[in-house]
Write a structure and sequence with these properties.
This protein has about 475 residues and is an alpha/beta fold. It has 2 domains: about 290 residues, TIM Barrel (Alpha-Beta Barrel), CATH 3.20.20; about 120 residues, no CATH class. About 30% of the residues lie in helices and about 15% in strands. The chain is built from 12 helices and 18 strands. Strands 3-11-10-8-7-6-5-4 form an 8-stranded parallel sheet. The protein has a 3-stranded antiparallel sheet with strand order 9-13-12, with no helix packed on it. A 3-stranded antiparallel sheet has the order 14-18-17. Strand 1 and strand 2 form a beta hairpin.
């Protein structure tokens, strides 16, 4: 097997093995610090990270604001405090080894404010910032201000070209690497474009080579590419290592670090990972971000899928085939639907899905009264965790809204990710994972339920297995 050679990342030679950042407390200071202490690059999540009181007790994130804007400011304060806390923990645990990176989502609420305040409050503790879920044009400028390297997460050469032409060419020296994240295999949110078919995965090597050609055009021959998404063991990536068409390369592991002693996820979550089978991770589009994302199929995801299947178009006046009257809601307001759709609706109502909820696409979905009440409760409690949210119609604008109806086919991503990160509930919450997660069950390294330390995992990865 071709061995990985050390690479200079964020100003220091390290083992080019990177821990992928996983949002809301899943990649924290302990896991990333341990990864750095093993000689690699640890990445803690700066997305609404955990913070602690003076005695070290976890601070529960409770919102008291009466309006969305007031709660949004509370969220920003929690996020800044949490990011600084996790940076300090990671720094202490790293023992001066490796590198520490912070991961943020460009489409999270107040991303620029949170990143700037975190870099200010944790000066010298964070060596690099990875950022995806959107087009992070300003990430380079912000990182340059603090002498920190930046690592854009992209899924195509075209996306990187746009970023470079618009902003990055002004901050060439701060570009630590370009993270290519496979949009079909990565866990969490994926960068599939409208031109790509979610059902037809493309092999990553040609896309990486295209990215390298683009980078070379910009004089970035020595800037590494970080391969992310679908990476399980290095034996399977030999065509990338030492390949002159690929150039210097590092590998990011997002799913495997979930199952370590230092990983903060619950024991129930860890045990569920050990039982997954091929096909148990679904690429779907229920996220309130509007992006595709990948998560473990569980009752939470099945309910979202079923919710969208109980859906019909409607009109407020007779038009085309929509001539049948359907009375909905407590006031029995009349809408017009097709005859076949009316039959479907009546069957759903008879089955207990009596609440018809309107979507922004002039359709109705049918849910139980309890589910309708829960959806409404979560929408009302919105604290603006995204720059724009399909589910609640919050937007980070003066108006505070997207201008569209709130979409009941989605969910409150902030609530479910906080709940799965801090409770043992793995059935009724969203469980992000990469599509290789099923391999925990068959990989001999995890035989008999073995859960390694981060150090043991990094050593194992370096053997190629």
């Amino acid at each position: 097997m071709l061995a990985l050679k050390p690479l200079k990342i964020s100003g220091r030679e390290v083992v080019p093995i990177v821990e992928g950042g996983k949002g809301i407390s899943v990649s924290n200071g302990e896991s990333s610090g341990a990864w750095a202490a093993s000689g690699g690059v640890g990445t803690f999540s700066g997305v609404n990270a955990d913070s602690y009181d003076a005695s070290g007790k976890l601070l529960e994130q409770i919102y008291h604001g009466r309006t969305r804007s007031e709660r949004h400011e509370e969220l920003v304060a929690y996020s800044i405090k949490g990011a600084i806390a996790q940076a300090r923990i990671a720094h202490e645990m790293s023992n001066g080894q490796g590198r520490i990176h912070m991961n943020i989502l460009w489409e999270m609420g107040a991303a620029e404010r949170i990143l700037t305040a975190a870099l200010e409050g944790a000066k010298g503790l964070i060596h690099g910032v990875t950022c995806g879920a959107g087009m992070p044009y300003r990430i380079a400028e912000i990182c340059a201000r603090y002498g920190v390297y930046y690592y854009p997460i992209i899924s195509s050469a075209r996306a990187f070209r746009a970023l470079w032409k618009r902003a990055y060419h002004k901050f060439r020296d701060g570009l630590g690497a370009v993270v290519y994240e496979d949009p079909w295999l990565a866990g969490g949110h994926n960068g599939l474009s409208n031109a790509e078919d979610p059902r037809k995965p493309e092999p990553p090597l040609p896309r990486i080579i295209e990215l390298r050609k683009q980078m070379n055009e910009f004089g970035l021959h020595d800037t590494p590419i970080v391969m992310a998404g679908g990476v399980w063991c290095l034996e399977e990536w030999q065509d990338f290592i030492g390949n002159p068409e690929v150039g210097p390369i590092a590998f990011q592991f997002g799913t495997r670090p979930l199952l370590t002693q230092e990983s903060p996820i619950s024991k129930e979550w860890k045990q569920r990972l050990l039982t997954l089978k091929a096909g148990d991770v679904l690429l779907h589009r229920f996220s309130p971000t509007g992006f595709y994302s990948s998560a473990v199929i569980n009752p939470f995801l099945r309910e979202l899928d079923d919710r969208s299947k109980r859906q019909i178009p409607y009109s407020t006046a007779p038009v085309g085939e929509m001539t049948e009257v359907l009375a909905i809601g407590a006031r029995a307001r009349k809408v017009y639907v097709g005859s076949a759709d009316k039959a479907h609706a009546q069957a759903w109502i008879a089955a207990g899905f009596t609440e018809a909820m309107r979507t922004p696409d002039s359709t109705l979905i049918f849910v139980t009264p309890a589910k309708a009440a829960q959806i409404h409760e979560h929408q009302v409690a919105c604290m603006g965790c995204l720059s724009a949210c399909l589910f609640s119609n919050w937007a980070q604008t003066e108006e505070g809204t997207t201008g569209k109806k709130a979409d009941p086919r989605s969910f409150c991503i902030q609530k479910t990710l906080q709940d799965i990160a801090h409770t043992s509930d793995v059935d009724t919450q969203l469980m992000f994972a990469g599509h290789n997660a099923y391999r925990f069950a068959s990989d001999p390294f995890y035989a008999n339920g073995f859960i390694p330390t981060v150090k043991q995992l990094v050593e194992r990865i370096q053997t190629g297995a």
